Amino acid sequence: MAGEFGAVLRRLREKAGLTQEELERRSGVSVSTIRGLETGKRGNPRMTTVRRLADALALGGEDREELLGAAVPGFRGGGADAAEAGGPDVGAAPAGGPAVATPAVPPSASAVRAAPAEAAEQLAKAVAARWQREEEQRRIQDPYPLPVRWKPACETLTDHWANIRRLPPGAPSAPLDLSGRLEGIAETYRSVPSGRLVVLGRSGSGKTVLTLRFVLDHLRTRTPAEPVPVIFSIGAWDPTAVTLRDWLTEQLTRDHPGTAAPGPGKVSLASALVDSGRVLPVLDGFDEMADGLRRPALEALNATTLPLVLTSRPAEYAAAVAETDVLTSAAPIELTDLTLDDLDDYLPRTTRKTDRADPAAGAWQPVLKKLREPSPDGSPAPLATVLSTPLMVALARTVYSDTPEHDPAELLDTQLFPGVRELEEHLLDNFLPTIYRRSRPGARGWEPERVQRWLGHLARHLTELKTPDLAWWRLGHGLRGSTRTLVTALVTALVIGLVDGAMSAAFSGSLAGGVLDGTIVGLLAGLMFGLVHWFTYTVTGKDVQPSAVRLRIRGRPDTTTWRAGPRLVIGTLGGAFFGCAYGFMVGLLRALSQRAGPALVLENGLINAIFFGLVFGGAAGLSFCLLGLLETPRDIVSAVSPGSVLRADRRTVLVRLCFWAPVFGTAVGLGAGLVVDLLQGHLGRLATDPMTSLMLGTISGLGGALGYTLTLTAWGQWCLLARIWLPLTGRLPWAAAAFLDDAYQRGVLRQAGAVYQFRHARLQSRLARSRRRG
Cα separation of 18 and 237, whole Å? Predict the structure, then answer.
C-alpha cells in the first residue's frame, strides 16, 4: 500500500508541474516526508498529511479520491472527504519547521493498521452505549427534546470561508448556510469541509445536550473510515503543562481503560487512536477553562489541523479570539433562544392532568397566556426572558411541573420576583430542596440541609481545582497538600502499628512488648510511607490514579506486554531504599534503648540498614516482578462509570493485597535467613531463628501491603480521605459513594466517563458561592 500511495503521489505531483520543494512550500509537509512517501520508505501516511498534500496539489474529483484511496484501503469519497475527517498531522511540519519522522512500516503492516482500526470500532460501540444511557438518565426524550436551534455566528468570530471550505488559492468562496436545529447537527457538521465546528451559546442554552445528540447521531451514520466522536471536558485541560494530543490520550485512557493496552509501535492504543486520526474530539466547555488558559488553548488548537467540535459561551470565546485569533478553519454557529411557542408546546405536556372537566388543562396554561399579554412598556416579561433557555425550563419543570403542590403562577409575582436575577436564583435555590424531598425507591433519605452543605463543598472543591470533573480519587484534593499527607501518614501509622502490635504480642506472648514494638514500627512506617506519598504525589502535584489493569493468570490477550523487568528494577530499588531507612532507624532505637555509645549506635544502625535493605529490596523486587507478570489491561467495551471504576480499582487493590502480602512476607522471612548467611562474618556475628523470621515475614507482609494500599493506591486514598477524614470533618456523608450515585440518579450530577460533573454549571457556581459565604 505504501508503494502504491507513493507512485500515485509522485504521478499527481508531476502532473501538477511541482517539484518536491515547491510542494513542501504549498502544503507545509517537509520535503523529507514527501520524498519518503514517494519512495515507499515512509508508510501508513496520516490522513491530515494526505489531505494537505491533496489541497496543495489542488486535486478534485477522481484525482483526489485516487490519492485518498491509495492511502486508506476501502476509501469511499463523499461529502467533506469522509475518510479525512480525523487525521492528525503527524508526518507534517509547519513551513520552514522540522518534520516529525513517520516510522517505517514493518512486514506485518496490515496487522498493525488493523489494531487501531478494530479498537476504533470497539470504542464506537462503547461511546454509543454510554451516551445512550446518559440521554435516558437525563430524560432528554421525556416527553421530547427541547428545540435547540442555531444560526451562523458573527463574522468577527469566523475564519475566511476559503479556509473553512478548504479551497485552493484563487478559488471563489462563499459562506455556508449553517442554520439548523437539534436533529440536524450531524449533517451540519458534515457540511463543513474543514471538519472544524464551534458551537457558541450562553449559559444553559443547550450546548451540552447538543454535543450529546451530535455524538449519537454521528455514530448512527458513521462509516468505518470516519473517526469516532468522543466528548472531552476541555475545562480540565492545562495547555501550558501538557500538549493537546497527550491530554486527549490521558482522558481517553481514563474514560476507556482498555485503551491503555499496548498498540502498534510500543505505544498505547489510546495514543495510536489519537495519532492516527481515529478520534474526533468533541471539546465541551471552553468557557470553563481557567482565566489565562483560554488564549494558550486556542493557540494550541490552531497549531494543529485536527478536526474537532468546540463549545463555549460567546463572551469567553470572543475574548480569547481578541487576544490571539479565531479557531483556524472553524465554522462557528450560535444557539438561539427558545420562543413562547416552544414553551406552549413543551411545558403543558410536562404536567399531570388534574382537571377532569378539561383534561388538556394544566398549571402552565394561565402562566403562558399571561406571558403573551403585552407589557405597558413593551418589554418582555422577566419570566419570559428566564424561560428562554433550556436550563431554566428544566429547572422550572422540576420545581413546578413535577410537584403538583407548587403553582407556577407565583413566578408572575413582580413583588416577589422583580427581575430576571431574582427568578433565576429562586429556581436554582429550590432545585435541590425539591428533588431531595421526594422519596426515591431503594434510596436512603438525605436531609436537604446537609445535602446543600455536602454539594456546596464539592462545588467549591471543583472551583478551587479549576476543573468541571468530579473524580472520586481526587476528592481529597480539597485539602491542602500538607494536610492530606499528614492525615495519610497518621492513619497509616495507626493501622500498621495496630497490626504490628497485635502480631508481636501474639508471637512473643508479651502485651507490653507488643505495644512497644507496634508503637515503634507504626511511627516509623507512618513516617516512611508519608514521605513516600509526599515525594511521589504532593511535591510533584500528581494524582493517585485508579488502576487501568487487572490481574489474570489464564486467558491473557496476546498483545499483553510483560512488565516483569521494569517492575523488578523499580521494586528492588524502592524496597532497598525503604529497608535501609527503616533498618537504620530501628538499629538506632535498639542501640539507644540499650544505652550504647555513639560509635556503637551508628554501627548498629548501619548494620541493620544493610540487612533490611537487602531483605526488603529482594523481596519487593520479586513481588513486584510477579505482579507485573499477571497484569493485563481491561477491555475497551467494558462499561465505565465512576462507580464501576471505583469497584474495579477496589477489586484490583484487594487482589494485589492478597497476592502481595503472602509473597512479600514469605520472601522477607526466607530472605532474612539467606542474608544472615551472606553477611555472616562480614558485619560481625549475626543470628536469627525460624520464629523471628516467621514473625518478621508476617508483619512485613501485612504491614507493607497495608502501607502500599493506603498511601499509593487510589482506592486506599479514597478510604482514608473520602470515607474517614472528610465525613469526620462534616464535608461529606459517611456513605460518600452512595451519596454521589444518588445525586446522579436524581439529576444533580451527570456522568462523563469515569468522573461526575454537575449537571448545570450555574448550579455549581451557585453552590460554590453559598459554601464560600457559609
Answer: 41
Amino acid symbol at 350: T
Residue 210 pLDDT level (bands cut at 50, 70, 90):
very high
For 28: left if phi > 0, alpha if psi spans -120 to 50, otherwise beta; the answer is left
Q: What angle do CA 385, 390, 396 make, to 5 degrees?
A: 75
Query: In which residue are the cell numbers 424531598 written?
Result: 437
For residue 268, the 8-state DSSP code is: B
CB count in 10 Å sphere of residue 631: 21
As a whole number of angstroms, the distance between CA 70 and CA 55 comes to: 16
**What is d(CA 612, CA 521) in angstroms, rounded to the nearest whole number?**
14
Give the span between the Cα atoms of 467 and 479, in whole angstroms: 16
Written as nine digits, the cell of 37 is 512517501
Q: Are 561 and 262 in contact (CB under 8 A)?
A: yes
Whole-number Å distance between alpha carbons of 273 and 261? 12
What's the grid cell of residue 474?
481526587
Helix (H) / strand (E) element for 88: namely: none
Residue 441: pLDDT band with limits 50, 70, 90: low
Residue 334: closest CA among 357, 355, 311: 311
- What does DSSP assign to residue 400? I
The b-or-e profile of 518-540 (16+ CB within 10 A means b, else e) is: bebbbbbbbbbbbebbbeebbee
User: What is the mean predicted confidence (pLDDT) over 236-262?
Assistant: 88
The pLDDT value given to residue 278: 92
pLDDT of the residue at 392: 92
Cα–Cα distances in angstroms (integers) from residue 448 to residues 113, 434, 456, in the given order: 54, 9, 12
Closest C-alpha to 232, from 195, 274, 262: 274
Angstrom distance (rounded) from CA 199 to CA 647:
36
User: Which one-letter DSSP state was computed for residue 262?
Assistant: B
Q: In this predicted model, which residue has the larger pLDDT, 622 or 453?
A: 453
Helix pair 31-39, 20-27: axis angle to 10 deg: 120
**DSSP result, 674-708:** HHHHHHTTTSS-----HHHHHHHHHHHHHHHHHHH
| Beta-strand pair 180-181/308-312 | unpaired
Cα R_g (the chain), whole angstroms: 31
pLDDT over 90, % of the chain: 26
Residue from 78, 25, 71 nearest 47 by CA: 71
Question: Within a 10 A sphere around the Cβ of 80, how many other Cβ atoms?
Answer: 16
Cell numbers at 456, concatenated: 456546596
Q: What share of the chain is helix, strand, coil (3-state, %, to 5)?
A: 60, 5, 35
Distance of CA 290 to the CA centre of its chain: 17
Residue 612: closest CA among 534, 697, 690, 527: 697
- Per DSSP, which regions of 54-194 are E strands? 149-152, 180-181
**Grid cell digits, residue 232:** 472531552
